[in-house]
Specification:
The protein is built from 7 helices and 9 strands, in the order αββαααβββαβαβββα. The protein is an alpha/beta fold. It folds into 2 domains: 13-43; 50-98 and 138-264, Aminopeptidase, CATH 3.40.630.10. A 4-stranded mixed sheet has the order 3-7-5-6. The radius of gyration is 22 Å and the shape is globular.
Length: 268
């Protein structure tokens, strides 16, 4: 990360390049050096998202994991009107560092939301009703998968890997070394999701996160499953995940939006 190389114009000053940077931040944002103690500064690629390919069928941008799923999820839930079942879009962070903290999926925020909804109908509800409501919930862990990269295809099990342009990817289980430290969606719930997507005419595919003992990864699905929810990971596949220029397919983004909308509109 390069911030500056020009020295501050003061012969008596020490650490002149650092002083130039601090002076710039102060003029632009009103910051002083002590503000770094409490600031949450993120240094990310500043370039805009770009269309990729002669046919402009793909999108190249930083941070599509997992903003791409947050966008499609929010777009879907804001367009469904009044659903047959209670619908929630929970957008959280800290997933890449273990889901710890008050804004992560391991916080009690989701339970507080369920508790608030139950209190609207029954102010002194018994605790078992909260547990039953969580247990009766269907959930999608909205997260991306890794698409096969022709330059590094050896890290994938090609018979069970996602490709760009084939629709939203259902990931039955994640983890590493096989299914270690992951949720494994039940056969029955996978059938529910398949039926829902097929009924809505949504293209979909399945895939895992790389070869056993070579690939791997985790999502928030296992934390949702601790509430006895039925949950599966589902989202677009990406090329060059976690790189400064991740690549997605426009068709997959559209498919993901349609899949989330169909999920929210399920009748039972």
């Amino acid at each position: 990360m390069l911030l500056a190389s020009m020295p501050y114009d003061d012969r008596k000053a020490k650490k002149k390049v650092k002083l130039w940077v601090l002076d710039h931040l102060n003029k632009e944002y009103g910051m002083v050096e002590e503000d770094f103690v409490s600031a949450e500064i993120e240094v990310v690629p500043a370039g805009p998202a770009r269309e990729v390919g002669f046919d402009r069928s793909m999108i190249g941008a930083y941070g599509q994991d997992d903003r791409i799923c947050a966008f499609t999820c929010i777009k879907a839930i804001t367009e469904i009107g009044i659903p047959k079942r209670t619908a929630i879009a929970l957008v959280i962070d800290k997933e890449e560092i273990g889901s710890d903290g008050p804004t992560s999926i391991k916080s009690r925020f989701l339970e507080e939301v369920f508790s608030f909804l139950l209190e609207l109908k029954e102010p002194d509800y018994p605790d078992r009703k909260l547990r039953r409501a969580l247990s009766a919930t269907y959930a999608i862990s909205s997260d991306v998968n890794g698409a096969v990269n022709p330059m590094y295809k050896d890290v994938h099990e090609l018979q069970n890997a996602a490709r760009l342009g084939l629709g939203i990817c259902l990931t039955k289980y994640t983890g590493s070394g096989g299914k270690y430290s992951s949720n494994d969606a039940s056969a029955e719930f996978m059938a529910v999701i398949r039926r829902t997507l097929n009924g809505a005419g949504i293209p979909w595919q399945t895939g895992e996160l790389g070869k056993v003992d070579e690939g791997g990864g985790g999502t928030i699905a296992k934390f949702l499953a601790e509430h006895n929810m039925d949950v599966v990971d589902a989202g677009p596949a990406l090329l060059s995940m976690h790189s400064p220029m991740e690549i997605s397919s426009k068709a997959d983004i559209w498919s993901t939006y349609g899949a989330y909308k169909a999920f929210y509109e399920m009748k039972g």
